[in-house]
């Protein structure tokens, strides 16, 4: 792995095949030990540990998390909410929704809308409250359009570039 000369926060980090294999394996099971990971990838434990440390220091590997079945966890209602914002209000939107747990993902996008949110709640009534009372009440939001999600599938695995 080579880090850009601009430092670890730069947008470009060059990863080699072993780095990609480590990321793929960790995305499948982040709880496995470094020893087990090294054995499965045919690398030494020391080399694997060093690579993981470098991936973390470079900001490529930002943490380890659990994959949660949202429906079983009480968040059976989900929707994509598309937003049109007032000029240059992306940061206002981000800070305005930072403490809203129902907003699972927030992205600035190009095209017809300025931002898209993934909102997960326990009920349609709660979804309505989040959209009308939290999102639409922000001064930076000009309009919203909501697409209710009937069923979804999230792939949490890292895909190695160029690998079928």
UniProtKB/TrEMBL annotation:
SUPFAM superfamilies: Dimeric alpha+beta barrel, Winged helix' DNA-binding domain. Keywords: DNA-binding, Transcription, Transcription regulation. It comes from the Bacteria. Residues 15-76 form the HTH asnC-type domain. The keyword Nucleus does not apply. The keyword Cell division does not apply. Pfam families: AsnC_trans_reg, HTH_AsnC-type. This is Lrp/AsnC family transcriptional regulator. It comes from Nesterenkonia aerolata.
């Amino acid at each position: 792995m080579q880090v850009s000369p601009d430092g670890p926060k730069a947008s470009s980090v060059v990863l080699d095949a072993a780095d990609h294999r480590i990321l793929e394996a960790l995305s499948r099971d982040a709880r496995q030990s470094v020893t087990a990971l090294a054995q499965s990838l045919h690398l030494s434990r020391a080399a694997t540990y060093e690579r993981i440390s470098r991936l973390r220091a470079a900001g490529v590997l930002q943490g380890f998390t659990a994959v949660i079945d949202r429906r079983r966890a009480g968040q059976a209602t989900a929707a994509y909410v598309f937003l049109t914002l007032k000029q240059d209000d992306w940061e206002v939107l981000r800070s305005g929704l930072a403490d809203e747990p129902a907003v699972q993902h927030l992205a600035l996008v190009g095209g017809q809308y300025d931002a898209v949110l993934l909102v997960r709640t326990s009920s349609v009534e709660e979804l309505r409250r989040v959209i009308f009372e939290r999102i639409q009440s922000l001064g930076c939001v000009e309009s919203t359009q909501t697409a209710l999600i009937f069923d979804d599938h999230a792939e949490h695995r890292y895909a190695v570039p160029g690998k079928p």
